[in-house]
Design brief:
This protein is of the alpha+beta class. Helix content is 24%, strand content 31%. The radius of gyration is 17 Å and the shape is globular. The protein starts with 20 loop residues before the first strand and ends in a 7-residue tail after the last strand.
């Protein structure tokens, strides 16, 4: 549900699935060993195609992110039907981490082959959804929400997901992207979007009542948010 009513349909054929892509990661410190480079394969899913266990894992991960209280505006735990509508109601892209020692998979690899039998919590590096930000005559402008698994933060997963988004969103039929609430203290996210050609088009004062870490004294504080935009009209779709 948006400010304009139920979430509108994407501006393209819902049967159009984008083949998986593979993106290099930065320096890693996980299974491949410190200093090694891994890869992230990114897989397009919908509510109709996502494995049940994977959807359950993403639901639990999203609840944990809401509890952190620093990135999403939702304050209370979300019931599973609400999560399915909010996060899985449009297009969903799941990133599977590959250790350097295993080699990067080929583009087009299936989700199951990429996971290599691992439990989802050991395979999923991050995820994002894509859906229209507005209905009807403005549904060609999309919005997205991102989540990076805590175990895989700091190795370039967020950057790989962002590059994938810029590649995939125009192929879903969108002509532009807008992020309504990027909290100004999420410096890493802002830097990623600016590197990819996004522009700050507005600042909302005290847009979020966010949790403070215990190191910063705990409690909550009001934080401004950026509105960030990018046109896809000049995107090369070849």
């Amino acid at each position: 549900m948006s400010a304009y009513g139920p979430n509108p349909n994407p501006p393209r054929n819902s049967q159009s699935i984008i083949p998986s892509s593979v993106h290099p990661l930065g320096q890693t410190t996980y299974a491949a060993g410190a200093g090694a480079r891994g890869a992230l394969s990114i897989h397009h899913l919908t509510a109709a195609t996502i494995p049940h266990a994977l959807a359950g894992h993403l639901y639990a991960a999203f609840q944990a992110e809401l509890d952190r209280g620093v990135t999403y505006p939702q304050e209370h735990p979300m019931a599973r039907p609400g999560f399915d509508a909010y996060f899985l109601g449009g297009d969903c892209f799941v990133g599977i981490v590959h250790a350097a020692e295993d080699g990067a998979p080929a583009a087009g690899v299936s989700l199951e082959a990429a996971a290599q039998g691992r439990a989802w919590e050991h395979a999923v590096g991050g995820v994002y959804y894509v859906k229209p930000n507005y209905p009807g005559r403005s549904s060609h402008i999309c919005n997205a929400g991102f989540l990076v698994a805590p175990a895989f933060r700091g190795i370039g997963v967020a950057s790989a997901l962002a590059r994938s988004y810029v590649h995939n969103a125009p192929r879903l039929g969108y002509r532009a992207s807008i992020f309504n609430l990027v909290y100004v203290n999420n410096v890493t996210s802002v830097r990623i979007w600016e590197r990819l050609g996004f522009t700050k088009i507005g600042r909302i004062p005290q847009a979020g009542r966010l949790k403070r870490s215990e190191a910063d004294g705990g409690g909550e504080e009001y934080v401004d948010a950026w509105i960030i935009y990018k046109s896809f009209e000049d995107q090369d779709l070849t």
